[in-house]
Amino acid sequence: MSQTTDGRVKPSYFPQLAAERLDIALCRTSTAVARAADAHAGAQGLGVGQHLVLKMLAAVGPCSQQTLSEELRIDRSVMVGVCDDLERDGLVRRERNPRDRRSYAVTITDVGRRRLTEVEKSIPGFLDDVFQPLSHQERAQLTALLNKLLNPST
After folding, report:
1. Start and end of every HTH marR-type domain (predicted)?
2. What is the mean pLDDT of residues 65-91?
């Protein structure tokens, strides 16, 4: 229950719904975390998708946009814009894929690596803020549970 500005008690149905429907609770939580991530990324000057692309390229090396899209679960049409923006800012470059001349390999640049390093410094504090209601043990448990849902075969 919450109070309106005129002092009346306003019933709140969502806590009951969330307790009954884990899927709804997870969707709403995901939306809240995504909004917080977008706001944080905006303050850093690098979108969430851009950050993820740089992070993956730094970890695994040059990839096609299709591979980036599939691995990061970013729609292919959105990935084109993400890579366009990163390339415009000098953070990645596109080169013909030597293994498949019909596609381009996206490669992180030295400028992109430095930018990624800068942005990564702010992530632990952001995560601490967003997941502040959870203890470290609960965060680890949530991480394990989400990984189990995302990778049921492992």
Report:
1. 19-151
2. 95
13-63: pLDDT as tens digits: 888 888 888 888 899 999 999 999 999 998 989 999 999 999 999 999 999
Instruction: Enumerate the H helices of the chain as residue ranges.
Output: 14-20, 22-44, 48-60, 65-72, 76-88, 110-120, 123-130, 136-150
Decide if 91 contacts 57 (C-beta within 8 A): no
Are 33 and 23 in contact by the 8 Å Cβ rule? The answer is no
**Contacts for 134 with CB less than 8 Å, ≥ 6 apart:** 142
Q: Which amino acid is at 30?
A: S
- Residues in CB range of 10: below 8 A, 6 or more apart: 1, 2, 3, 4
CATH 3.90.1200.10 describes domain 45-118: no
Q: What are the residue boundaries of the structural domains of the chain, listed by start?
A: 1-44, 45-118, 122-154
DSSP 92: E
**Which amino acid appears at position 42 of this protein?**
G
Residue carrying the six token digits 């990061």: 72
